[in-house]
Hints:
357 residues; Maltoporin, Chain A; mainly beta
Amino acid sequence: MQKAERLRLKVNTEAPFLPGDSNGNTLGSDFSIGVDSVLSYRASWSVEPGDVITSEDSSTYAEAPTRFGGHSLGQNVNLSLPELAGAPIKFEVRTETENNWLVNGSTQSQRERARLSWAPGPASVSVQWAGNAAQFDSSVALTCDFQSTVLVPTHEASDHSESLLFSGRDCMVPDEGSSHAGIEAQAWGMSYIWDRPKRQSEALLSVIDPTWSGESELAGIGPGYELGLRHRRSFGTLSASALVSLRRAPALADAVAGPILTENTHWAANASLTWQLPDASLSANWASGVDRFWFTPEAGQQSDQFGLALNLSRWIESLIPRSSPQLAMNWNWSEIRLPSAETVGSNSLRLDVALMF
Length: 357
């Protein structure tokens, strides 16, 4: 006997609090309606006063108020399509709009994303789209608005599992001072993953293929390749990860030697260690051969980096409950190696402190 689907309806409302309350001063509402396991729709909105509305005494401002307030609206649709090969196809769409009302005008930002997932048998398929070129991987100078992955298990046992992961992304080189800003690129990847309790190893192959225009002197030079090995491990409160990879940038014809091709191949490595304590966290990061534009012919401006971070926010919260504190210190060192063999070093120390009531 087939089970009848039920209609669900839910409405929540958040009333504004008085100025100065630690919970803020926001008016909002949340509305959702749906049919069990088939279709659901959710909408949420909020109005937040700014430095003009919440002020009780304008003389307390060191500077003139600039913001009346803000408004945000979010909508989410989830749809479960009929089963295909034994599994339903799930589709999700999310839109978010934020408005800021300023004294001298207004600003608006909008974000959209969509995701399709399907898990026939042991395999799983995921397709994601994010508007405004959302960045999936900050270690590479690419912003990607489309990504798809296919995970195929190859071995399942009580003590470990193994699987193949295929991925594809449609990306663009961002405007970060590069001469190739705005160039489209396709990124492909394949990795073999070994999963065991508290540890994971992964052998990966990545290909980044920029799309050069026919009039460009770089047309037809080919993609960049990366072959690497990644390992993650957990030791209770300690967790560590490391990646070692060999990267080969596209070959570029030498202007003097004519048909002879020059190649740019180098090693890159990074490692991190994090110690999570009840009231604090301490982390260290090291990287060598860092070059976010390694897949372009002009690759070669690499850097070495080292950083330490200490976060004491949980400790402050234990002393002052409901204060939403932030206390973090970060020290970073880097040394850039230019193609001319020159090096440029830098150090920075940052302290983040916030306490809200």
